[in-house]
Design goal:
single chain; alpha+beta; de novo design (two linked rop proteins); five-stranded mixed beta barrel; five-stranded antiparallel β-sheet; 10 helices; about 45% helix; flat; RING-type E3 ubiquitin transferase; EC 2.3.2.27; metal-binding; zinc-finger; zinc
Length: about 475
Amino acid sequence: MGLLGRIITEASKDGSPETITCINSSFRPQPMRPMHDAHIVVLIGSLLAAACLWASLRLRRRQRLLHDLPTSKTLGVFIGMVELKGSAESEEPLSSHLAECPCVIYSWKVEEHWSRTVTSTDSKGRTTTRRESGWKTVDEGGQSIPFYLRDEEGVVLIRPEGASYELLTVFDQTVNDNEPLYYAKGPRHAVSHSDYRRRFTEQAIRLHAPVYIVGPARERDDIVAPEIAAQDDAPLYLISVRSEERVQSSLAGWSWFWWALGLIIAAVPLIILFVSEARDWQTSPENGGLLLTGYLVVWSATWVWMVYNSLVGLRERVRQGASLIDVQLKRRHDLLPALTATIGGLGSHERTVQETLASLRAQTTATPRGAAGPDFAGVAAQLRVVIENYPALTAQTGFSALHDQLVETEQRIALARAYYNDIATQFATRLEIVPDRWVASLGSMKPEPLLAAAHFERAAVNVNFTDTNRI
C-alpha cells in the first residue's frame, strides 16, 4: 500500500469525516488553468489585429489622399501633390522588347517551367514520392523615359523614375523549345529539371494610352512650367493605366478586407471561450471580448485621427498654394518701380501708356488674400502693347531683362493661382461632407477664400509629338 493509501486508512480508523475530507481534498489532482494559454492567445491576437488595422489604415489614407486631390488640368498644375488624367505622349517613344509596340514605359519577364520527382524516407523507413514543379524567372528587364501627359488644355512633363507603376499587359505567350520565340527572346541556357517550356510576359504604357497620375509637382529647370517627378517626402507617386475610380475602389476594398480580418482575429478569443468547456478564463467569459472591444475602440480613435490629419494636410496644401502666390507677388512688386520709371520716361500722353502706368502703380498695393478690395491682375499683356507701339523701349538698358522677368513672374503667379483655387475648392468641399465636417469642428477649420485674379498668362510648352498611329 502506498503512502496515500496508508494516510487514508489511518484517517478512516480515526472516524473523522472532516479529516477524510481534508486529506482527500489535499491530494485531489488539480486541473490546469488555461491562464497561460489565454495570455498567449490574447498576445498573438493583439499583434495580428494591430497589423491588420495598420494595413487597413495605410490603404485608407492613400484612398483619402486620392479622393482629396482635385483632378487638375495641365494648365492648373503647380508645386505640390497633384492628380492628372490624360494620354501618354512622347516625341521619341520606346519600342517594347517583346510586343515591339511604341510606349513610354515597359517591363518584361521570361519564365521557364521545371518539374522534378522527389523521394524521401522518414524515421520509420517509410518512403514517399512527390512531384514538384514551378516557374523560374530566367530573364527580365524594362525601360522608361520622361514623357508628356496631354489633356484638352495642354501638356505636362512626367519623369517616371521612382514612381509605382500599374501597367497594361501587352504580351503573354507560352512556347516550347521548338518555336522560334523560345530562343529569340530568351537565354540559351536552361534551368535545372527544365520542361523546356517558357512563358513570355510584358507590361507597358502604350503611346497615346490613357493614364492616371498622382504625384508631386515641381518647377522645371528649363522653362517656367511644372513637371511631375519623385520626391523623398511625397506620400505617393503613382502612374497607372487604370482609372481613378478603379484605383480608389481597389484601395478601399483592400482596406475593408484588412479591417474585417483584424476584427475576426480580435473576436477569436471570445469565440474560443464560448465553444470550449474551460469557461474560467479570468473567471468570466465576458473578458474574452476585451480584445474585440479594444480593437473597435482603437479603430474608431485612429479613424478620427486619420480623417483629422488628412484635413490638416489638405489645409496645409491650401496655405502652401497661397504662400507660393505671395512669393511671386513680392517678386513682381520689386520689379514694378523700375518698369514704371522706364515707361514714364516716354513722356507720352497716349491713353495706352497712361493705362499701363496706372495698372503698374495699382499692383504695388494689391489687395491681400481674403480682404475686401480689387484682386491683383496681370499687366504683361498691356506692357506688350506699349512695347509694340514704342519699339525703342527694347533698346533701353535693362528694359528687356526687366520685361522678361515680369512676364516670367506673372506666369508663375498664374500657375500658383490655379493650383491654389483647385485645392481650396476641394478643402471647402471636404468641410461640408459628413462625417468630415464633424471632425473638422474639432480644429475649428474654416474654408479659405478663392482668388479671382485675371489677365495672367501661362507659358507655352512647345513639343512635337510623334505621328505614330494610335494603338
